Amino acid sequence: MNIPTNLKYTKTDEWFDPATGAMGLSDYAQGQLSDIVFVEIVISVGETVSQGKPIASVESVKAAAETYAPASGKVVAVNEDLSGNPEVLNNDPYGKGWMVKVESANAPGLMDAAAYTKYCDERAH
Amino acid sequence: MTYIPHSPKEREAMLATIGVKSLEDLFKDIPAKHRFPELDLPPALTEMEAAAELGELSIGNENIRTDLISFLGAGAYNHYIPAAMDHILRRGEFYTAYTPYQPEISQGTLQAIFEYQSLICALTGMEVSNASHYDGATAVAEAANMAYAQFRGKRKKVVISPTVHPQYRETMRTYVQGMSLDLAGDDPKANLDAGPDSLEGLIDENTALVIVQYPDFFGRVYDFTRLIEQSHDKGALVCVAANPIALALFKTPAEMGADIVVGEGQPLGIPLSFGGPYLGFFTTRKEYIHKMSGRLVGETVDNRGQRAFVLTLTAREQHIKRERAISNICSNQGLMALAAAVYLSLLGQNGLRQVAELCYHKAHYAAEKISKVKGYSLCFNSPFFHEFTICCPKPVAEINDHLLEHGILGGYDLGQDYPSLKDHMLIAVTEMNTRDEIDALVDVLAEVNRD
Questions:
Q1: I need a surface site. Which of A14, A27, A58, B437 has the fewest CB within 10 A?
Q2: Chain B residue with Cα closest to A38
Q3: CB–CB of A63 and B320 under 8 A?
Q4: What ipTM, to 2 d.p.?
Q5: Which residues contact residue B222 at a Cβ distance below 8 angstroms, ignoring those fewer than 6 apart?
Q6: Where a domain ends, among B321, B343, B365?
Q7: Are B321 and A40 in contact (CB < 8 Å)?
Q8: How many domains is chain B partitioned into structurally?
Q9: A75 vs B contacts (CB less than 8 Å)
Q10: Tens digits of per-residue pLDDT, B108-130?
Q11: Count of A-B CB contacts under 8 Å
Q12: CB-based contact B315 A40, cutoff 8 Å
């Protein structure tokens, strides 16, 4: 499982990059969902998002899930390419699979890579 | 044979598990006098006696197959139902109203639904159809649900033409009351002769959906292309509620640019039966498929390369998305959808067009004749399909009483929904009405005015 050390993580399996303000779905989450067939970003540029509020709706061949904002902030970009290529969430969750970018982020209480690895391992058993 | 599946032993085990001694103990919180109340029922009848009594009661009914000539429409229409339909519908394999919950095991049911969807798409010109709603009214209301979700609740206005069926508008009012959606245009006092352009002033950047009917409640046919363009300019979606028979004759709503096309499927071989069960059809464009409620069957190939059918995109449905689903009305009218598919297959493209042409020409013959009767006139000048509005010299109820004495079921009294249309009658003519019947209607109408 890929858990980059430069990112922070939530208990609901989203990642947040404090350096760029980007956020998305973790590798663990995409693996659990299996083949993702639909994604819809449910917020727009210019809006303010609060930590824990929905940013995207994701559907795979076996489940539907909500993605929650790991950080609060003002939305400066959303990944418009996702809706046409939902499979990048499976192939490249931390790269092309980014969902939303925010500025002036506030992200208290997130896990670092080590804590998140442990959290994922616990659930695997 | 006992119809209670639990044996006395099993019941004892269950009672012991929850810690009560007997069935009486289980119900002891219910006051004794309410446990087995005296019911005011007549003595039991034998099957033969019950059949005789029910037969007696049914003789009191007058129906349009055997007793009455009908010119009543207003949303439900008297069309010929081919004899083969009942035989196909009553097959045991089909005789259930529900899409199975383990769907792929029932390939025949799925294929029937797939054929229904394909036929409805061909008729409306749209790209995708769901596997139906309860009726036309709920299909219209679901369009509002879909548009609301499409704009994620940010557009809060639905514009509905006052010439949409009054019952559809009533259902819409019920749906929107808990959704923080505003309904505009729902005004029976509006100028009913103004045409679709009169809605333009109501459509703005806050409008999620514009709803019109085709032909409208008064039977009139308008081209909505311009209205749809203007709605799209404001970013709003447009829903056209269409009569499926009319679609065999006129430009499809898809050609006009509609985003959602819905309607009452009853004219497609479903009998008039006191309001139901009927059928709501619902179609849209591919890009909105994830926002469409209800069942959707798709075609694929199985692991042996054979054509097979599956429930597609089930993730958006209530049993997975639960409270996050766009609509929690997913039940369909499986048997009614099958009826529509069978009807359309039996008639074919040419047959359906023939039905539509007969309706059109007979209605125009009737309108022409009635407009020449002293005291009566056509209320609107717009082109119409198989229904038209006449201005009457007397209250509609009085005229209809008179018609009924002659075995004729008269038209719909528009005064009950539109104050400006007091003494106006909506008359429907279908392929079922013969020239003699139309002439009889005209004669009685003339007689009423002379009395």
A1: B437
A2: B290
A3: yes
A4: 0.78
A5: B195, B196, B212, B214, B216, B382
A6: B343
A7: no
A8: 2
A9: none
A10: 889 999 999 999 999 999 999 99
A11: 22
A12: no
